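Researcher: Next entry: Branched-chain amino acid ABC transporter permease (Microvirga makkahensis).
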Amino acid sequence: MSSSPRPFFSLAGLRYGARAALPAFPGFIMFATAFGTAAAQKGLSLAETVGLSIFVYAGASQMVALEIWQQVWTPSTILTIMTVTAVVNSRMILLGATLQPWLRHEPVARSALNLFLLTEAGWLIGTRYHGEGGRDVGVLLGTGLILWAVWQIATIIGYFVGALVPQPRTFGLDLVMPIFFSVMLVPLWKGMRPALPWLVAGVVSFVTHALVPGYGYIVAGALAGVVAGMLIK
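Model: Predicted structure:
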């Protein structure tokens, strides 16, 4: 990302970011509702469920945490859940690093909030905006805040009524996020060479997912993409 002109922050950017996130709402609602339902079925209290969504705010990690959730905790199970969720979420380190040129002049508190609220959808919206010449950091924060709020509301709805909602596949809702990402990526196309790291990441993730159980494919794909990008440059 270019550092010129200098990034700035505005309330108009906040509003723009919130509007730009609208296409991601269906996917977020579906995923958060599913989490709320799964948490209720697992026996978590409403406070525990909402607490996970508020403070962890990472769909894949929250789902993984539910899989190994215990009614009685021991040091080993606590270490296990911390390790697994950290591994699943490690991809966010790479996404956050790409925002450094954009956020480096921001106040520490606002940068920290932006990074806490960062999701793949928010990162993609912000990256596309920045790639088109935009420099208002408010866009990134506006996207993050609205998606975080949607996630909390949908989690609560899922906790109480998720079991009554028909299967998302019935209405094709499971395709919303893949379509959203595909459409958003089109303007970022700069030719085959810059796209090679993405292709490598996708292939490695797919192969790892097929051969290795668990969520290691997320980390494997991310690291493969980074290595491919470094080699190409």
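Model: Note for the record: The chain has a mean pLDDT of 83.
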